């Protein structure tokens, strides 16, 4: 079974999952090779674990062709729902049994149609699957945080080419998200204003880092971008929790997300990138009230192109080097219509 370990000094969690060593890979150090069989293709449903969610033709039977989006448990999960969540200590460090959830969102039956190639309706259905699975996993009280993410290309950690995302339910709240929550809370208490409202207001007024906007969302290159052509997709309406997003917002989010990824493709020509959904924890953390999250934090997507590997400075200090100014990145992205 997997195991989560927490370092007492650095306060980060690491998932140790030996079983994933045996998973099949399409990407490797020498380049790209194809698996003999693509388990995500229609007609190969028996090659994956039984689906937990799908969007498809009316009257379609589970685990048969006719789906447009399909969610299955990861065959090589980092965390498993089976078992008991047990905490222990190893000296001054913390340890948890590897309880959680690890699912794969197969975004399309077409192995060559990435998210930017899909119609806005297709992207909407992928986001709809995120929301549905997050709502379902919330019922497991062992889960403290659910993250949806997408890895595209070998530099971003992708192991399979067929377009897919992943959803993981964690028994802990990762420090990255705690850091964002605490900073948003501190900003709110200090200024009596919401950071994300101020961010959108300032960026729209300056109009030098805006990529695209519509009635519900603003896409911008953040002021201190860690990655070249990094973009944030931020909703205008205050909501800390992606699980509460309305259908009309999923549609308008799908529209700007597709456009943003399409523009990235035009500039960088099939770049590796990570897409991560940032949202509030499922339950209150010690010393914090859930009601405060709704006032100070806002769910959003981050698009992080991976044009180069993470090197010593980034790994050793957390300080990133980026050769492209966000203002220049936004100007190029705006021009790609």
Topology:
Blueprint lengths: L2 E4 L6 E4 L10 E2 L2 E2 L20 E4 L10 E7 L13 E4 L2 E5 L3 E6 L13 H18 L7 E8 L11 E7 L4 H17 L3 H12 L3 E4 L3 E4 L10 E5 L11 H22 L4 E6 L11 H7 L3 E6 L6 H6 L8 H10 L2
Antiparallel strand pairs: 1-2, 1-8, 3-4, 5-6, 6-9, 7-8, 9-11, 10-11, 10-15, 12-13, 13-14, 14-16, 15-16
Runs in which pLDDT lies below 50 for 5 or more consecutive residues are 28-35
Strand order, sheet with most strands: 5-6-9-11-10-15-16-14-13-12
The shape is globular
Helix content: 25-40%
The overall pLDDT average reads 92
Oligomer: single chain
Count every beta strand, where a strand is a DSSP E run of 2 or more residues: 16
Number of helices: 7
Strand and helix order:
EEEEEEEEEHEEHHEEEHEHEHH
Q: Strand-residue fraction?
A: 15-25%
Radius of gyration over C-alpha positions, nearest whole angstrom? 20 Å
Largest sheet: 10 strands, antiparallel
Q: Class by helix and strand content?
A: alpha+beta
Q: Could you give the distance between the termini?
A: 48 Å
């Amino acid at each position: 079974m997997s195991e989560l370990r927490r370092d007492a000094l650095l306060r980060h969690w690491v998932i140790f999952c030996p079983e994933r060593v045996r998973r099949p890979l399409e990407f490797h150090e020498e380049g790209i090779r194809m698996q003999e069989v693509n388990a995500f293709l229609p007609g190969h449903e028996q090659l994956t674990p039984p689906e937990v969610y799908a969007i498809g033709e009316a009257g379609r039977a589970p685990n048969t062709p006719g789906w447009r989006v399909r969610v299955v448990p990861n065959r090589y999960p980092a965390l498993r729902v089976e078992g008991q969540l047990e905490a222990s200590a190893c000296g001054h460090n913390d340890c948890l049994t590897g309880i959680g959830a690890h699912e794969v969102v197969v975004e399309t039956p077409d192995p060559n149609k990435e998210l930017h190639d899909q119609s806005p309706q297709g992207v909407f259905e992928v986001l709809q699957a995120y929301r549905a699975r997050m709502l379902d996993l919330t019922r497991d009280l062992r889960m403290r945080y659910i993250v949806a993410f997408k890895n595209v290309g070998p530099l971003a950690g992708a192991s399979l080419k067929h377009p897919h995302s992943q959803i993981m339910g964690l028994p802990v709240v990762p420090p990255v998200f705690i850091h964002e929550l605490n900073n948003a809370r501190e900003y709110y208490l200090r200024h009596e204003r919401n950071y994300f409202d101020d961010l959108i207001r300032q960026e729209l007024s300056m109009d030098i880092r805006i990529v695209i906007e519509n009635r519900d969302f603003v896409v911008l290159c953040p002021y201190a971008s860690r990655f070249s052509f990094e973009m944030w997709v931020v909703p205008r309406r205050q909501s800390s929790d992606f699980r509460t997003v309305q259908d009309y917002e999923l549609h308008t989010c799908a529209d700007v997300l597709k456009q943003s990824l399409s523009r990235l493709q035009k500039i960088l020509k099939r770049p590796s990138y990570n897409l991560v959904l940032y949202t509030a924890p499922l339950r209150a953390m010690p010393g914090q009230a859930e009601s405060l999250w709704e006032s100070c934090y806002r769910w959003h997507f981050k698009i992080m192109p991976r044009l180069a590997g993470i090197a010593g400075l980034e790994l050793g200090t957390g300080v990133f080097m980026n050769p492209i100014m966000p203002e220049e990145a936004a100007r190029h992205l705006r021009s790609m219509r």
